[in-house]
């Protein structure tokens, strides 16, 4: 019986370590694509200890808050959001004061999101139609931007949206 208990504990540690490594590797890869300012702020192997990152008990990244980073996005931003879409347990994403002028349509690929906060980013564009793919979204904020155009027809797919 002791052998079975040891095996279960060892397997749990192995499994948790792999989950943590996978999510952290994915997050670190995305952070490196966002640019040097974020890379400097978020470094290390355990992303669950980063300020603004929340993980669940299994080590899955569930929340990302990049508040007031004041970085300027580069050409790798769409790829960075594609990386974030691989974080299957990510339910909340906050990006404020990122100083970019367009909303990356790739955010629409992060289908697990329930909360998306994109305040004070100087967006001077229309809302991408791809945001309509965020069917789990309950809360969407885009305050203090310079958005133009109409709300996309695809927003009819956001049946869980409670706050806009």
Automatic annotation (TrEMBL):
<dbReference type="Pfam" id="PF00560">
    <property type="entry name" value="LRR_1"/>
</dbReference>
<dbReference type="InterPro" id="IPR051848">
    <property type="entry name" value="PGIP"/>
</dbReference>
<feature type="signal peptide">
    <location>
        <begin position="1"/>
        <end position="21"/>
    </location>
</feature>
<dbReference type="InterPro" id="IPR032675">
    <property type="entry name" value="LRR_dom_sf"/>
</dbReference>
<keyword id="KW-0677">Repeat</keyword>
<protein>
    <submittedName>
        <fullName>L domain-like protein</fullName>
    </submittedName>
</protein>
<dbReference type="InterPro" id="IPR001611">
    <property type="entry name" value="Leu-rich_rpt"/>
</dbReference>
<keyword id="KW-0433">Leucine-rich repeat</keyword>
<keyword id="KW-0732">Signal</keyword>
């Amino acid at each position: 019986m002791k052998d079975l208990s040891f095996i279960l504990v060892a397997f749990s540690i192995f499994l948790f370590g792999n989950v943590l490594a996978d999510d952290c590797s994915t997050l670190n890869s995305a952070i490196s694509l966002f640019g040097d300012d974020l890379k400097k702020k978020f470094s290390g192997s355990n992303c669950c200890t980063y300020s603004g990152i929340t993980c669940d008990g299994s080590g899955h990244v569930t929340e990302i808050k990049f508040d007031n980073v004041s970085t300027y996005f580069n050409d790798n931003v769409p790829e960075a959001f594609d990386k974030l879409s691989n974080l299957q347990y990510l339910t909340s994403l906050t990006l404020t004061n990122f100083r970019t002028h367009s909303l990356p349509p790739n955010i629409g690929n992060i289908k697990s999101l329930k909360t998306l906060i994109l305040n004070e980013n100087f967006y001077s564009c229309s809302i991408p139609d791809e945001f309509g793919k965020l069917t789990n979204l309950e809360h969407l904020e885009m305050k203090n931007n310079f958005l133009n155009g109409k709300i996309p027809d695809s927003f009819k797919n956001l049946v869980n949206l409670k706050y806009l």
